[in-house]
Each structure stands twice: as structure tokens, then as C-alpha cells.
Amino acid sequence: MDSRAASRLARRLRLRDLHALLVVLDQGSMARAAAILGLSQPAVSKAIVEMETVLGVPLLERDSRGVRPTAFGLAMAERARAVLDELGQGARDIAHLADPDVGEVRIGTTEPMANTIVAAIRHMARDRPRIAFDVAVADTGTLVADLRARRLDVVVTRYGVGAESADLDAAWLFRVPLVVVADRRHPLLRRRGLSLAATMGEPWALSPPHTALGRVVTAAFHRHGLQPPAASVVTLSITLRLGLIAGGRYLSMLPRTSLHHATNAPWLRALPLTVEESGEPIAALTLRGRFMPGPVRVFLDALRQIAPRMPGVDAVLPPGSAT
User: Fold this and answer.
1) C-alpha to C-alpha distances, 6 to 14, 25, 72, 79, nearest whole angstrom
2) How many whole angstroms separate alpha carbon 155 and alpha carbon 117?
3) pLDDT, tens digit, for every residue of 168-221?
4) pTM for this entry
5) With contact defined as beta carbons under 8 Å apart, do 241 and 250 qualify?
6) Is the separation of the CB atoms in 51 and 9 below 8 Å?
7) Which pLDDT score, from 0 to 100, does residue 322 have?
8) Contact present, 93 and 291 (Cβ < 8 Å)
9) Distance of alpha carbon 60 from alpha carbon 57, whole angstroms
10) Which of 80, 119, 218, 233 is found 20 to 30 A from 298 (Cα to Cα)?
């Protein structure tokens, strides 16, 4: 599209209509979207029809069950989110210019990395107590999708070298090996010459195999020539797994940093065996080419300072560095 065509389109499309489109797609219903927007259903329908007329393509498919996006609607929604996000970023930038110590950082992290986020927030809060943090904890796939949808500013997760995506920047923070964890009274802690194969008959609580940590755990077993054990419990929740381990015979495979959490250190132990795994580094992911407001840049700087000093982690060299 040339600049003149883009200019004509900018004059004919309204920001509130783009917002209405996103709400309709999120809700899957004109009626529910109208209630959220504080408009009548005919007004919302008219806004969508006018956009379809301007663009010359259908954005929605309508039937008795509600509305669904067409391929054109999905493409327009992606651009609309970017436009509205940039406006929101602009408001945040203006607030930051007015007061460099005020703003918000939207962070996504997996549960094993939560302690790293806690340390970085504490580090920032000493000098910038008026910066707010909105922290989402989920699996890597969900977090990266939210980052791409601009609902998050930064995601901290396991993200191996070689897994780079063209639209993401990765700041490598540290490596953290996996360990097999158990309650401090587990009888296997007293066994000499323990191997991973010797644990296969124990009850295991593991990550779902389709998650990022689940895939790393599966690969670790494979490198020992083993299939992952038939887990007694499969759950994304590390809190639930730790609850099963405490005072019982359950085992799990977690990052070594879990041993150093204040609530775990008194009772959680690593079995005396080596887990051969890829050692994929933990990275802070951001959307490439997206302007980072001041508070987000400060948070990334805090991560780079704090993360390599976290207990239980190993240094990571930048991609392409000599080992």
C-alpha cells in the first residue's frame, strides 16, 4: 500500500472501531462486546460493517452461535492490536517523561523463574518505589503469545540458543541445570552410586510433556537412554508438585534454583545423581523493534545485574561466544 492509500485509509478508519473489532473477536459475540463497550448492538454491528466497506473484505463470519474472524479479520486484528498498543505505549512514555520513576512493567514468567523476578523487583523498588509491576505466571507458549500480542513487555523463561525467532530479542541471563528433587528424608538420598535409571520405580510428579520444561525433562531422560517414567501426577503447577514431594516419596525434576527458594531450602534436596540435559539458558525476551519505555529498560538492566548472581545458576555466554 502506497503512502496516499494509507493516508486515505487512516482518514476513513476510526480508532474506536478498531477497538470494537478487537472486543468483538475477544468475546465472540456482538451482544457481549456491546455490553463491554457501553454501546448498543446495532452500533457495534454498524462499526464493523463500515470497516468492511472501507476495506472491501469481510472481517467476520456471522451465524447463530456468534461471530468468528475471517482471514482478513485476523490480519486486521493483529495490526489493530499493534496500533492500540503503540498508543498505550505513547501514554506510558509521556508519563515517564513527566516523571522518570513512574510507570508500569508488564512481566511474564514461568513458575521456576519467579524467584528471579522477585529479586529484580526488590532491586528496583529500593530506588524506584513508584514503578508498578504486573506479573503473569504461565507456561512459555502462553507467555510468548501474550508478548507477541503486546500484552506483556518482557518474558523471562527457558529459551535455548538456536530457538531464536525473527520477531523476538533474547537477552541471555544464566543457565540453570535440572536436578531430581525429593524430600530431605527420602531414602534414595542415602543410596550411593545412584543413577537416574534407579529412580524409575518411584512415584513421579512431572510437567506436562508439551510444555517447555516438560520437553527439557523428556530430553534429559532420553539422553540417559530412558523413556520418561509414567508419572503418577502430571501438572503445570510447581506448587502442587512441591506439596506432593514434602514429607513423601514423590520425585520431580526441577531447575536447581528451586533448592534455594526460602520456603524450599529447609526440606527440599537434590538426589545425588547427574542429570544430563541441554542446559538451555534462561532469557529475557522482548519484541524486536518495539520501543521500550523507561521502566521496562530499567527492569531489563536490573535483570542483567541480578540474574547471574542468583543462587544455583551458571553463567551463560552470549550466542556465538567461544566456550
Assistant:
1) 13, 24, 17, 13
2) 10
3) 999 999 999 899 999 999 999 999 899 999 999 999 999 999 888 888 899 999
4) 0.71
5) yes
6) no
7) 41
8) yes
9) 9
10) 80
Overall residue count recorded for the chain in this entry: 323
Number of Cβ within a 10 Å radius of residue 147 = 22
Place of cell 493516508: 7
* C-beta atoms surrounding 262 within 10 Å: 8
pLDDT, tens digit, 9 for 90 and up, residues 269-307: 999 998 876 567 899 999 999 888 888 999 999 999 999
Distance CA 102, CA 128 (A): 8
- DSSP string spanning 142-188? HHHHHHHTTS-SEEEEE--TT---TTEEEEEEEB--EEEEEETT-GG
pLDDT digits (tens, 9 = 90+) for 96-136: 666 768 889 999 999 989 999 999 999 999 989 989 999 99
Instruction: Report all structural domains of the chain as residue ranges with CATH numbers, in order of start.
Output: 3-82 (1.10.10.10), 99-175+280-309 (3.40.190.10), 178-270 (3.40.190.10)
Q: How far is 15 from 37, CA to CA, in rounded Å?
A: 13
Other residues' Cβ atoms within 10 Å of the Cβ of residue 222: 13
Helix or strand (DSSP H, E) at 63 = strand 60-63
Alpha-carbon separation of residue 220 from 86, 202, 217, 260 (angstroms): 41, 17, 5, 22
pLDDT score for 161: 53
In 3D space, the residue among 285, 289, 305 whose CA is nearest the CA of residue 154 turns out to be 285
